[in-house]
Design goal:
6 strands, two-stranded antiparallel sheet, Alpha-Beta Plaits, 2 helices
Length: 91
Amino acid sequence: MPVVNYTRGGRQWRPRFMESIDANRCIGCGRCYKVCGMGVLELMEKPFEGKDEYGDDMGNKVMSVANPANCIGCGACERVCARKCHTHVEL
């Protein structure tokens, strides 16, 4: 039987835990990293992407799920992601 949690206001709430980040959508902005107080995420190298319009190397870092067991299922990272590249699951 699934565990049902309640907010302080009495609403039902089910945690959704971080499963993965789509590296093809992630731009490495770090918003999710900044809101996660549990150390779930870290920046990782992405395969070389080529050059931008100025001839500079394009961004080659993206977020990764480094410590999934630390996730408490709050969903803050998912809410701040402009690219919607996070996948979360209920346990």
